Write a sequence for this structure.
């Protein structure tokens, strides 16, 4: 695997972080990632991140689950094993609703959880790269990828952008 | 910066015209139905309850946000606040119902009661019923007016104690309303079918009225924006209002299914009689009710884009608003008049009461600045966005 060099700078306040991002963007420096201990409002818009595709995956899986849930019950209770419950018709739609609902939720939830794990490269056994453990505590970190040995230039840019501390990471 | 609403002559004459049309149609409808007094009183109850419940739903909307310490609602807060000022006037319409009690509630004929109704008579008797009705109206009116008074004080006084006082009122309100929202629904609506009962009926009716008040908040917001006010309301606020409409429509459907499914399953005549009546004599609107109030907002508002688009949002709101009028119609009419009647009387009374509601709303909305600028979370209302 090719060696990659990252430069990171951390902030102690989300307002400073947002200011730092603004100043880096004003200098046309591409930000590769921002790591924060809690969601910062409006960060996704400032970083021009594209909208997550997870809702769509959830919708498709949910619709699929609803179809499976309803279809399976309808098939079982009219074709495969018709049973008479209290004189109700074999195809009793009201009694199918709870199971249909549950399968919709189940499929959608699975699609969302596994879709999220896959799209963000997480999960059991996935390699984790920790740039700064304090990010889970009280630090807001900006990551820049250095290309062609411009890491010093990036470090200066980060300091200029108000970072409290700057580090270099080779992986 | 925030343009104050002016109740101009033009708006006033439009609202008065709505009231006049409603009054003429109502009088014509009453004249045509003089020998069907059931139908007249059932319509008084239907519209009296529907709009009073909307006004209380609007008050609830403000109250939960005060208790939840939310900030975003302050941009639109004055709309539900002004809507809740209708409660005392809606109470007057509900007092009319006491006059026509014998035409709506068959348990009120105390001289011939069967065994079951005799057993219920300690609760369901005309005197206690009247006392409860008056008590609901008085307590609710006092609470909404008290809250409004404190909220209006914040316009000239930025003392934090006023905000804390709002929270105290909200706490009292929520405790009282938690009980009275259920009991009032039992008294006014469920007791029409006096032999039948459902334990979740109170929540069902309350959630229905809360959805209609959110729909009406959006509709009024749209009207006000069209007239050039409320320009500070942005997509994020629309998105949140849309979420309310979407989520609570689903919750309404959840309660609808919960009530229907158990009765359908157990298939006990005392319980199914409620649905048999509605499915046989009100067949079309019984199924339309679910389609309109669940499927329409569910499908329209599922996507993020439609919640942030005022045209889609307003379409869903109007559908849901009409849908919940139909839902209330379906709760009241089968027990009181027995068959689906829809004509000049129904339209006239609805337009009349809607007109009065609008008149009171606009008058109260004009009395105060369109936003509570001294609210401690007011800035937050413009400093947030919904996650993509």
């Amino acid at each position: 695997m090719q060696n990659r060099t990252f430069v990171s700078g951390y902030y102690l306040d989300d307002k400073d972080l947002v200011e730092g991002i603004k100043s880096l963007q004003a200098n046309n420096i591409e930000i590769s990632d921002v790591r924060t201990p809690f969601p910062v409002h409006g960060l996704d818009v400032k970083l021009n991140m594209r909208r997550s595709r997870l809702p769509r995956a959830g919708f498709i899986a949910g619709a699929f689950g609803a179809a499976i849930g309803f279809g399976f019950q309808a098939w079982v209770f009219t074709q495969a094993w018709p049973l008479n419950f209290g004189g109700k018709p074999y195809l009793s739609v009201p009694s199918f609703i709870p199971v249909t609902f549950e399968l919709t939720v189940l499929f959608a939830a699975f699609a969302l959880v596994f879709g999220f794990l896959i799209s963000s490269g997480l999960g059991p056994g996935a390699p984790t790269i920790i740039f700064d453990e304090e990010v889970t505590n009280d630090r807001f970190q900006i990551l820049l990828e250095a290309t062609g040995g411009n890491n010093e230039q990036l470090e200066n840019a980060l300091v200029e952008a108000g970072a409290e501390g700057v580090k270099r990471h080779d992986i | 910066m925030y343009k104050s609403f002016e109740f101009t002559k033009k708006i006033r004459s439009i609202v008065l015209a709505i009231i006049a049309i409603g009054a003429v149609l109502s009088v014509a409808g009453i004249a045509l139905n003089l020998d069907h007094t059931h139908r007249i009183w059932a319509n008084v109850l239907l519209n009296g309850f529907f709009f009073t419940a909307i006004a209380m739903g609007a008050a609830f909307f403000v109250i939960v946000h005060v208790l939840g310490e939310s900030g975003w609602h302050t941009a639109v807060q004055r709309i539900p606040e002004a809507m809740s000022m209708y409660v005392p006037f809606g109470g007057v319409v509900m007092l009319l119902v006491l006059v026509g009690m014998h035409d709506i509630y068959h348990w009120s004929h105390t001289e011939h009661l069967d065994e079951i109704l005799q057993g219920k008579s300690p609760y369901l008797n005309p005197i206690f019923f009247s006392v409860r009705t008056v008590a609901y109206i008085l307590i609710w009116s006092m609470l909404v007016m008290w809250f409004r008074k404190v909220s209006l004080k914040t316009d000239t006084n930025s003392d934090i104690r006023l905000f804390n006082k709002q929270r105290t009122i909200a706490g009292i309100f929520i405790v009282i309303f938690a009980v009275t929202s259920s009991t009032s629904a039992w008294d006014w609506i469920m007791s029409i079918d006096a032999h039948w009962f459902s334990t979740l009926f109170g929540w069902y009716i309350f959630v229905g009225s809360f959805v209609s008040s959110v729909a009406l908040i959006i509709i009024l917001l749209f009207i006000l924006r069209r007239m050039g006010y409320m320009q500070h309301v942005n997509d994020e606020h629309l998105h949140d209002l849309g979420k309310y409409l979407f989520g609570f429509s689903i919750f309404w459907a959840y309660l609808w299914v919960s009530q229907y499914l158990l009765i359908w399953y157990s298939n006990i005549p005392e319980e199914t009689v409620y649905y048999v009546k509605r499915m046989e004599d009100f067949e079309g609107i019984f199924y339309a009710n679910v389609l309109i109030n669940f499927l329409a907002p569910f499908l329209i508002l599922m996507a993020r884009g439609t919640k942030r688009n005022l045209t889609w949002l307003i379409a869903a709101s109007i559908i849901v608003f009409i849908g919940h009028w139909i839902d209330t119609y379906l709760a009241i009419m089968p027990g009181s008049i027995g068959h689906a009647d829809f004509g000049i009387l129904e339209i006239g009374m609805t337009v009349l009461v809607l007109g009065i509601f609008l008149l009171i709303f606009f008058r109260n909305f004009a009395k105060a600045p369109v936003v509570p600028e001294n609210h401690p979370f007011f800035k937050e209302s413009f400093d947030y966005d919904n996650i993509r």
User: Anything to note?
Assistant: The CA atoms of residues 97 and 168 of chain A lie 57 Å apart. The mean pLDDT of chain A is 87. The two ends of chain A are 9 Å apart (CA to CA).
